[in-house]
Structure formats: C-alpha cells, structure tokens
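**User:** Everyone, produce a chain:

**Assistant:**
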Amino acid sequence: MTHTTGFEEQIRGLITAEPGEITPLAEALKHWVPERIHTPGATPAYSNYATAIAGYIVQRVSGMPFDDYIERNIFQPLGMASSSFRQPLPPALLARMSNGYSKASEGEPKPYEFISLAPAGSLASSGTDMARFMIAHLQDGAFGDARILKAETAQQMHSTGQASVGPLNRMMLGFYETSVNGHRAISHGGDTQWFHSDLQLFLDDGVGLFVSMNSSGRDGATGTIRDALSRGFANRYFPPAPAAAPKGVSAEDAKLHAQQIAGTYTSSRRPESNLLSMANLLGPVKVVANEDGTISVTAALGAGGAPKKWREVSPYLWQDVATTDRLAADVVNGQVKRFSMEPYAPIMVFQRLSTWNALAMPLLSASLGVLLLTVLALPVSALVRRYYGARYRLQGADARAHFGARVGSLLALLATGGALGLMVAMLSKLEMTSINNDGLVIAARLFATVALPLGAVLSVWNAVVALRGKRRWLARLWAVLVALSCLFLLWLGFAHHVIGFGANY
C-alpha cells in the first residue's frame, strides 16, 4: 500500500478494449511475477502489480471475490449505487457511463477500457458517489449511520507514511501526501488512456476535492488543469500564513551542491528485466547546474516537458522558483545517489545513471545513424557507378566482406529499429500491449536473436579484412565504426532483453 515492494513496472496487457482479454485476478498475478529491482521498503516505485496483490489478499482473507467484498462492505454502506469495479460494467451502469476521448475536440468516442490487473485502476464511479467516499474519510470512516472503518484504523491509514527523500511528501496507506500552504492533505490521482482523475482530502479542514476528465487534451493538458485546480483551490480557501523567507545557503555551497546533483537519472518506476527496459533510454531525467547556483531539471515531466528551475533553500533541499514544490537529494560521501521532487516524490525517486548508461542513448543514436548510412550507401553507390560507368574496385574476399558488412548493418538496423518501433507503439497505444500481440513481441525478439549476432560477426569480419587490406584510410575507419556500431547494438540487445524469447514485460 506504500508502493515500496521493489517490483519493476509491468505493462503487458495493462489496458485493453476487448472484454474477452480480461484475465481473472489470481491468474493475472501468477502469469508472471515482475522482478524485484529495489530493496523492499526502501524505494518508492508506484506499482499496479502491488496494488493488484492487495486486492488479491482481500479475496484470500475474506473468502469472496474482491468485487463482492467491496460492494458489501464499502459501496452499500455508503450508498454508492453508481460505483463498480466489475469488468465489464453492469448494463445499468454502462448505459450511464461517459464516453472517453483522446481529445475532446476530435469528437470520436473511444471503447470502454478494461484493466488486466484490476482492481488497480478499474473503478468506475460518479462524482456524487466519490463525495460520499470522501466524507467517510474526512469523518474517520463514518458516513451518516454507516461506518466502513474504525476511527483508529482510518487515522492510521491517513497518518502512516513511507518516507521518500528528505522532507518531501510521503506515500501513505493508499493515499499520498499533498499538504499545501501548511494544511495537511492526502490525495490520489488516476489515469487511463481516456480518463484522468484526482481526489484530494484536506483532513483537518473537512474538505474534499474530486475531478475527473474524459480526455487527455493537447500535450497532456489534464495534468496541468488538475494541478492548477488543486493549487488554486488551496490558495483561495487556505492561503499560506506569512512565513519568514528561507535562509537559503551560501553562494559557494549552492554552486557546489548544484555540481554534485548534476547528471543523468532514471525513474525508480521502470521495467528492467524485459524488452521494454529500452524505454529507459528514451526518457532520462537530466539535472543541469546553472551559473547562478540554481539547478534545472529537464525531462518529459511537467507542462510540455519544459525544464523547471529550482533554488536551494537549505542544504540539499531546493524549491521550484515558480511554486512551492520542493526537490531533495540523498547524499552519500558527497555524491548525490538519488533525488525526488514534488509532486512525484511519494511514488518514485530518480536514481543516478552510471556514465556508461548515461551515454547509451547518444551511442544508440550514433550507431543507428552509422548503420543507416551504410545501408543507404549500397544503392546510392551502385547508381553513381552506373551513371559514371565506373567499376566496383573491391574484389575477392575484400568485396565479399564489404557486402557482408552492409547485410549485417541492415540486419542490426532492422532488429534494433523494429524493437524500438514496437516499444514506442506499445507505449503510445496501450492496446498494443494486448496478450493478442504476444506473437509479435516473440517474433521481434527471435529475429533480433539471430540478426544482431550475425550482424556483429559480418561487420567485424569486414573490419578485419579492411584493416589488413589496401582500402583507403577513410574506408578502413568507416569499417571500424560499422563494427563498433553492430557490437554496441549486440550488447544493447543482451542488456535490454531484446535478444531472447517470451512476451512477459
């Protein structure tokens, strides 16, 4: 419930539009257990798999299906007649269910979404029902004459926190802290492809706020809207009390600490033992030390992925120059090992990448560029020779090795490009993670298992022949670059599980 089980992210079958692909909870959990990539209890990494385990525990302990248990013990006592975790929805509720949209302006309704690891993300509810749920929590488990939690249990749920980094907001039991302007608040948001919701409880003020939107909007606008609504509501009704300006740190310490935290990081919430670990290469978080002692964090986080600027307000604690959000770092022997920032702090931290892993994406881009030029050179050079009536200069083993390198380049390019394209397609359109596409994932991996080693062998053979032969120095250099590119992609194939068999991710 604090999302510190240590599991890697699981994505296979995350969302589908086909009710026939819904897998019973026990079967879905046992099909594949994600690897533990963090020490349990030590690292926040939000996990749908862990949440589904909590639902399965409810089934095992209560002796009844999760949906039945929730209806009997939560929905019925609170009068939540317009709420259900069931998949598919009961017909009476489905008839009242809002359509979801990619963008409202497109006007094209999307099919109802089904969640493979239900109950994580499978609740459909109305605003009125969520109000009843919020009131019950604001009143320590009671709503009218009904009670869903003992008062001491509710208080424990609202106050038991799992630390993230430094003084940042924590993950509670099912909720996470979002205290603002000195007012204690706990929250939980939720996103599918088409629906984006957020619930916030100001426990000491007796106020709850819930919003749900049925499209993501342009450039993920719903995230910006939710954040602005929450901040605007708090600033309007719970304005901050006058406070002394933070002392900050000396200019020298600010620049030192900025240099210490500068680097490339990856999220703790990530796949690691499977094909989709390649996604980690595409979205690293970069921290840059600025001349004035501030730092800038650049990633696909926040509005439009724009960098956010932070100023140090106490040792290894920074504040966003535009908001009250904070960023903190864990330091070991003068080196920052990880950091987090609000609002992400309760559900993930960002861990420093080694220099080699930080260079992986630039090297991948360079390798693919080298191989693409090599492949394109074959038809281009043939056309040029034909136009000018020139002969192909290489002969014998030299010619065979040269041609083999181009074949190897094409194989490595297709294997890596195909895996990347498949990964991006699956993350862009989650229906692509359907179990019906397992064959496509397996085929891509099997092709890479053959193509990447063969490409490396052919390119290395060509490099050896080129260095021993009489090719021009530029041709020799290019042969070495092609060999290094193919060898790097071979390493990448092993390191990121492109090479192999199976469709668990």
User: Anything to note?
Assistant: DSSP finds 14 helices and 16 strands in the chain. The radius of gyration is 27 Å.
